[in-house]
Design brief:
By secondary structure, this protein is α/β, with parallel strands linked by helices. It is built from 20 helices and 20 strands. The strands form five sheets. Strands 1, 2, 3, 5, 9, 10 and 11 form a seven-stranded mixed beta sheet that branches. Helix 14 (about 410-430) crosses helix 16, helix 16 (about 450-460) packs across helix 19 and helix 17 (about 475-485) crosses helix 18 (about 495-505).
Length: about 550
Amino acid sequence: MKYTIGVDYGTQSGRAVLVETATGCVRAQAVKEYTHGVMDEYLPDGVTRLGPDWALQHPMDYLEVLYETIPAVLKETGVSPQDVVGIGIDFTSCTVLPVGADGLPLCFDPVLAKNPHAWVKLWKHHAAQYEANKLNRIAQERGEAFLDRYGGKISSEWVFPKLMQILDEAPEIYEKMDRFMEATDWVTMMLCGQERRNSCTAGYKALWHKRDGYPSKDFFKALDPRLENVVEEKLAVTLYPLSTKAGGLTEEMAQKTGLLPGTAVAVGNVDAHVSVPAVGITEPGKMLMIIGTSTCDILLGTEEKLVPGMCGVVEDGVLPGLYGYEAGQSCVGDHFEWMVEQCVPPYVFKEAEAADMGIHAYLTKKASALKPGESGLLALDWWNGNRSVLVDVDLTGMMLGMTLSTRPEEIYRALIEATAYGKRMIIETFEESGVPVDELYACGGISWKNPMMMQIYADVTNKPIKISASDQTPALGAAMFGAVAAGKENGGYSSIFEAAKVMGKVKDEAYYPIPENAAAYDRLYAEYKRLHDYFGRGENDVMKRLKALKAEARRREG
């Protein structure tokens, strides 16, 4: 039996799976919580304070995941390293870091480590909104064609706004960096010793187009004269398509992971995109919702359509020969975690403990007894801004309809419903733009752990939902790409389509809309849509004004 390993890097942790290539069966998995987690208030020195909307990480946390989880799955199963044919990784994106000429992150330098811009900027680092606004304004003024491929607006989460922020606020870091890299490319480089940047993140997060390449030098010069040659100086001209081999495992990494030197390493990938073949999707019309702290939606198509508010459409961006569409929501699991940490009174925790249940499971049980509309609540799911379809991180959350009798489980359910309404908004926007969404699929821990939420999604969207058979779908997908990098002759596969037929699976059971619930949610969604457009499309910018006042107050405090 031959095996492949997939390593999935999430927002709070990384996990590895060891998978049988011939069956897709996950033999073992191991999880490593990041030592430093998400740094959104202070650097690790505990002194250097971060500004509003910052979100950083420590790159050593990523290496620790490899050093701990890969030996763990090998030890648990007793599988010989000789039988592991490949390894692939995926990452939350756009997660980027500046590195020196030696390939090491600038934050490893004790002097530079005091500068926040030397660290990894996590996907949900939103402090580059000023730069994103500037980029969008100049692109619109110049009539740049690439803008429409990203729904008409570039997100502050992506490569160039984050790079521009470094140039604006820490030009010394910009000059010092040899390259600005996606974390998925950097970890792949650490594994195989070669820089092999993937075309997926370049296409979705760095404005690269398979036929047109990057935007012109004139455009970058218009952003800032120092950016005229940014692609050649800080990024990479040569990109490698998904399913290709980045190289073989180095001697050093082989010693640290317990694998053999030369083990095939796949080109890096994104957590959402790598998950599509892991549920067996290889054709258009099937949207996969990767539900975690945030949610990313991936959909395949046969032609390039322009969809307002999408995160991008990239040829071969998910699977070769097809166009991959991306959309998403910036706050889903984070939404519910905030509720539990900040808004649940002690008596509810005591009730959950008495019932021998976790707090999320207990709130879900209580909320399940409610009918659609029974709480009288309606929320806007913008606690971390809006990714699709408004692409505006300066929007904030809202809860409408609370009274003195409102209970925690009602708020909890309203937050879940809000994310479902946001999902329906995304689906309708795709369909109205000529990109059909015939079926829904879901993966991620929440899709396994919360049947109520999945039923609400089916009711709100009025579409059946199939669930991934694996509780670690992105890691499984990464492992599949590792098997393709190894090649059929070595016990892997000749293509990702071939791998998907064998290794990609969904559960036998699915969620189907309940007609009376769907009818009730149609009425609630209509109200959501009115609020969505009123606060999100410029009629009332009170959220942005409040956020600006908050930032001013913090600056005075600092």
